[in-house]
Design goal:
Shape: globular
Number of strands: 7
Distance between the termini: 27 Å
Strand content: 15-25%
């Protein structure tokens, strides 16, 4: 079962896919396994962000078809001199992050750059000290994907290269319920392209 690193008492809305990877000795799970585990998470009343009304009719999340073109090897550049900052959220909560590095990659022939972040609280957690957060927006938001962007979960790479699998892009919990508080992707992480991969928008009843 997924172990979250959000706190229910303050409705911190991350999903921890890392727990599944930990069960595989830190090896990244496949896109197919990611989708399977995410559907199991959402179907389970003990772990689902869905309210009772939507949960009773839930069958599976809608994903784009898995596309290997959206699995890219990115160059990772550490940015060690960054100052902590408060990331905007969907509520007045102000979680503190620090920019940990930058990733540079080519997608469908065009070059892009995104920032990756680390939550200061996670730095103190022995289970999640090496975990990074990549929130992003793209041209599908508000159309086929959630309007306030999607997330990727990463781990600190051991080299200057890191895999980005956009087939594993997932929605913040705010896409499913207003009771959560979710980080809003910073403006610098807006991609001027469509990311036709990962979880699509959720159709609430």
């Amino acid at each position: 079962m997924f172990k979250r690193f959000y706190f229910v008492t303050i409705v911190f809305s991350f999903i921890s896919i890392f727990a599944v990877q930990a069960q595989n000795e830190g090896k990244p799970i496949s896109s197919e396994e990611f989708q399977k585990e995410l559907n199991e998470e959402y179907a389970n009343p003990e772990t689902s962000p869905l309210d009772k009304e939507n949960l009773k009719d839930f069958k599976e999340l809608e994903f784009y078809e898995i596309d290997p073109d959206y699995v890219v090897q990115a160059s990772f550049v550490r940015t060690p001199m960054e100052s902590p900052f408060t990331m905007k959220t969907s509520t007045d909560r102000e979680p503190v992050y620090v920019k940990y590095g930058e990733v540079y990659f080519t997608l469908k022939g065009k070059e892009y750059q995104l920032n990756v972040y680390q939550g200061l609280e996670l730095q103190k957690d022995p289970d999640y000290y090496d975990y990074l957060f990549l929130p992003f927006t793209d041209l599908t938001n508000g159309r086929t994907t959630y309007g306030n962007g999607r997330y990727l979960d990463l781990r600190i790479p051991e080299s200057d290269s890191i895999e980005l699998d956009f087939n594993k892009a997932y929605n913040p919990y705010c896409a499913y319920s207003s009771k959560y508080s979710c980080p809003i992707p910073p403006a610098e992480n807006d991609l001027d392209t469509e990311i036709l991969a990962g979880v699509q928008a959720y159709d609430k009843h």
